[in-house]
Amino acid sequence: QVQMVESGGGLVQPGGSLTLSCAAAGRTVSRNNMAWFRQAPGKEREFVAVVTWSGGNTYYADSVKGRFTISRDNAKNTVYLQMNSLKPEDMAVYYCKTALRRDNNNWYDNPYDAWGQGTQVTVSS
User: Fold this and answer.
1) Which residues on adjacent β-strands are paired with residue 92?
2) Average of pLDDT values for 95-114?
3) Beta strands 46-51 and 34-39: pairing type?
4) Could you tell me which residues come within 8 angstroms of residue 42 by beta carbon, excluding any fewer than 6 positions away?
5) What burial letters (b/e) apply to 74-88, b meaning 16+ CB within 10 Å?
6) Spatial CA neighbour of 97 closest among 79, 122, 74
7) Separation CA 97–CA 14 (nearest Å)
8) pLDDT class for 64, splitting at 50, 70, 90?
9) Which is nearest to 77 in space by CA: 96, 57, 61?
């Protein structure tokens, strides 16, 4: 069974940092493009970052580039998202999921896998 279990969300002040974790049960992170997506209240779910299975290359949405870092620990089969300089607009539920590529600037979730519960990131003073 495939299940992505996100954790690490919480409340952080603007400018603060937070690191999210994703335990990718049922998928091997070293053999899948692993991505983070997020959905803010009233907004569409959007792509945040991805690390590719082939070479471990990373790609980011423009909105988080330079502030967020995606990484993986193959031994732990876990994906991380380090978030720095958080802004109120980063407030959302964050999800991890295997991803597919249209091009390097256009990634989408693998429809073969289900969305997990996500983890809430709240950025507030």
Assistant:
1) 121
2) 96
3) antiparallel
4) none
5) eeebbbbbebeebee
6) 79
7) 26
8) very high
9) 96
